[in-house]
Amino acid sequence: MTPRRTFRARRQEKGNERGLARCAGVSERHEPTTRRSWRTILGATATIGVASAAYLTRERLRSGAEAALAARRAERGRRESEARYRSLIDATAAIVWVTGPDGEFQDEQAGWTDFTGQSLAHMRREGWLSAVHPDDRDATIAAWRRAAEQGGVYQIEHRILRHDGAYVDMQARAAPVRDERGAVVEWVGIHFEITARKENERALAAAKVRAEEAALAKSQFIANMSHELRTPLSAVIGYAEMLEEDLDDVPRDELRADLGKITANARHLLDLINAVLDLSKIEAGRDELHVEPVDLDALLRGIADTAEPLVRRNGNMLVIDVAEPLGTARTDLTKLRQCLFNLVGNAAKFTEGGTVTVRARRESGQLVFAVSDTGIGMTPEQRDRLFERFVQADSSVTRKFGGTGLGLAITRAFAERLGGTVSVESEEGQGSTFTLTIADVLDDVAPTPEVVQATPGGPAPILVIDDEQPMRELMERFLRREGLAVITAPDGEAGLRAARARKPAAIMLDVMMPRMDGWAVLETLKADPELADVPVIMVTVSPERGLSLSMGAVEHLAKPIDWRRLKTVLDRYRGGDPRRAVLVGSDEATASAVAAAASAEGWTVRQADSADGLVAADMDLLVLDVGSDTERLCDLPAIRRALGARVPIVALSDGSTPPPRRVVQAADVELVEAADAAGLADELRTLLAGLKDNE
Predict the structure, then answer these.
(1) What is the reported pLDDT for 31?
(2) Is 0.90 surpassed by the pTM of this model?
């Protein structure tokens, strides 16, 4: 099919024909054949032109269609990209936002608005900064301005106020978007929550601080403990060296005073070590509860009696203020008593010329004890650190008053074990009040009673009553090595059952025990007609020697035990003939005192008017009382020749006249000097114990 000719093509064809006719006018007259050829050529040319025009038209149409198709595809791709971008924003947990090149918000920011509650109007002109924590705003502004000036990445960590009023830790990052010329056209950024990381960082920082504080506190504790241990130990060593150097020249009263100082400092050392051991038990979880009925009124009376000398030491007065009887509670007697002792002792230590008051009451199933003083008081900073282990109020308190910083930490730990707590109210210079609150009824956590065993028949055994198993085992081992039969009991009640089942030759009794302490056991033993005459030896860390003897104990030995002293005491109950002593030239008072001291150490005493005619076979010891007449000591060489070297000789003097020491030493005589009969008896008793030790 011939293509349809356009108007322009027809017009061109006619013009071509006219031009060819003019050019070929002459030839046409002469050569008709040539005209026909030209017409053929012109027709072909016209056909080619029409075809070319049609081709060009088709190409232009095809190019336009392809361009339109490309444009449609580009638009579809843009819309798909925007849809994916919006889906990504919706799906992410982060907040995505876009600003203009100047950082101004131009469009709604849905994520930011949902999180903070801020509208677009509120966000503009840096209004969005009101959602940033006040402490973080300066850093946020500085980071943004630095990024804008440098054209770099904006990055900051800050706290953002959520719509519910809570601040949330977040991290922000934004980067500039540039055109082909490199100019910033907008900023695209995100905020994402970092609360978990920040909490971990804060927890690690707090743990680091606590660890550093604990290390510092323990270092201070070691320094304090070293000082606390060195001070009494130096006193012990110093007084002991003085006694060793001046033993022959120092009067007895001075010796007794020095020995008292040695004892006091040694007991202070023991108290310090016991505090550390108590803390180690608490930290290791090895402190057991021993629940028993506790007479609270009797407990307070006992604490008052024991603490009275301590309170009066600084010129203070102790007041027990209890409105009505407290009755009985079920709790751990030992731990409760130690808590109250610690509180009263602290009050007495930090108060001078004031009053220490102990109050107690029942309140809603709890026992409330309040210990108040009129002492130096504390600052708020000191109160905050008061119950930390190894810590005292501050270093100046440690230097002035001493101590290890463990007492109140142990008190709080014990209070928690007793179902309660301990708190303090104090003002500097106005005194302090410590309040101990515990449950009045605790569940029983009683240990399984130990089976008390003894060999049927045979000699009467020694009964050991102690709640510490290692101590029972150690005592049993020592006693069996000495050839004595032994039975043991883990507490007071089991000990009483064992004593009634097998009347022992002697009882070794601890004081600080659960369920029934040593004082209660001793009182029960002395009230029982069948057991009242059984000798009881108190073996304890308690310093109450006078109380032990007044309640009927025959001896009071302090822990750690002096095994040689214990052997001497137990020799009285071993059986066999007693040792024989002869007392020469004594008055009635001195003779009675000497007889009592000798009897306590397992000796019998026979009196004689003079040493003439005495023979060594009739005695194991000669005691010569010269009183103030030291000239009688000149007879010692003759007496020594008569008795021989086997019989020990002890000379008693009242110390009023210097004795001839060379004569005494030459005759190998022990000289005991004391101003009264009681002093002579005490010195003689120690000497007799030593004689048995040396056998």
Answers:
(1) 52
(2) no
